[in-house]
Amino acid sequence: MAKEDYYELLGVGKSATPEELKKAYRKKAVQFHPDKNPGNKEAEDTFKKVSEAYDVLNNADKRAAYDRYGHAAFQNGGGGSRAGGGGFHDPFDIFRDVFGQGGGGGGGVFDEMFGGGGGRDGSRDGSDLRYDLEITLEEAARGAQKDISFRKNVTCERCDGSGAEPGSKRVTCPTCRGAGQIRRSGGIITFTQTCPTCAGAGSKTEKPCTTCRGEGRSPKTTKLNVRIPAGVDTGSRLRSSGNGEAGQAGGQTGDLYIVLSVKDHELFERNGDDLYCEIPIKFTLATLGGTIEVPTLFGKASLKIPAGTQSGTTFRLRSKGMPSLRGGSQGDQLVRTHVEVPTSLTDEQKQLLEDFARVSGDANEPTSKNFFEKAKKFF
Predict the structure, then answer these.
(1) Cβ-count burial of 210 within 10 angstroms (0-12 exposed, 13-18 middle, 19+ buried)?
(2) Residues of the chain with CATH 2.60.260.20
(3) Contact 101/237 with Cβ under 8 angstroms?
(4) Residue 266's CB: how many other CB atoms inside 10 A?
(5) Residues 208/164, Cβ–Cβ less than 8 Å
(6) Which class is domain 104-169+206-263?
(7) Mutual orientation of helices 41-57 and 18-32 as an angle, nearest 10°?
(8) What per-residue confidence (pLDDT) applies to 170?
(9) Each residue of 160-171: b (16+ CB within 10 Å) or e?
(10) Which of 27, 233, 270, 308 has the smallest number of CB atoms closer than 10 Å to its CB?
(11) Overall pTM surpassing 0.85 (yes/no)
């Protein structure tokens, strides 16, 4: 069967720049990665194909040979991808190029963020993981303890992470004869590549572990108690060292990153460390003044309303906002008043208000004179 065109596999044109190739490969690799599509043989095959395509097109010499001779440039031992059994390129390198050792992303509640680096002895560090956690504004203000549960790859108990069936041993890799690398010839070009059989270790297990099938890891549900400090906000990221995926063949365990999002509150809005809320007050209180109790995230607080307070007046309650993550300070709570006008009156209330309007002169001048003074310039 004829091999698919490398450019078409990545979804780019022949004039694609290295950055465009990298972006296209990353998108395809994330979409078809076996960890994202467990048990899906078609997705696994596609992942191998796009890795092979990127292996070739990401190298200037190999790309030039492919553009000139097509797939014939790599026949007769000319290579393929590591994922496909004879490759040039570690599929995870693209993620390290983009993110380095501390990048990440991924939607959903729980995602693998990036793979760890491989060693000459065949070891590979475990992937860092991401967990999206939603909390309330009250929890963000006071701090909280949250229990989370997720699945991850842990060290296989049967083989203790070696990947070898108990009692079996490691033997020299028959493909590279212990060198960890093999040489491939592609016409006039000779390539040195990591051995696809032993992944560069120079040796392989005589008999793979029957539990983890030689990987040295197996999936397990993990429970963890997370301490959330006071003052966090949406987008805050907590790092739990050593709670990512287990490494392979002695590689280090990755980390877990908990990414927080704070729910909208029915009463308060947040701006940095300050909180905003609006409260209704009676028009009699606004006119005569007085003291009321207003809610805060830390209990009730007294607020003095001066006589003659207008609707929309904003008052500041010092240090009643969110604590700062940096410590030593706390935001304020700003309270905006809304004066309620009664919608129904008894005959007695109506008479009293009419008497008040007459005594105040409002009966003849219902609109403020000050308003007309300001409005003159428009006429």
Answers:
(1) exposed
(2) 104-169+206-263, 269-378
(3) no
(4) 6
(5) yes
(6) mainly beta
(7) 160
(8) 76
(9) ebbbbbeeeebe
(10) 308
(11) no
For 228, the enclosing helix (H) or strand (E) is strand 217-228
| Encoded amino acid at 207, one letter | K
CB atoms within 10 A of CB 290: 16
* Cβ 282 vs Cβ 340: under 8 Å: yes
Query: Where, residue-wise, is CATH 1.10.287.110 in the chain?
Result: 1-100
pLDDT for res 39: 82
- C-beta separation of 34 from 43 below 8 A: yes
Q: Does the domain formed by 269-378 have CATH 3.30.70.60?
A: no
* Alpha carbons within 13 A on the beta-carbon side of 163: 19
Q: Which residues of the chain have pLDDT under 50?
A: 77-108, 120
What's the CA gap between 144 and 125, in Å, rounded?
31
What's the pLDDT score for residue 95?
40
Q: Does domain 1-100 have CATH number 1.10.287.110?
A: yes
**Residue the block writes with tokens 């194909």:** 49
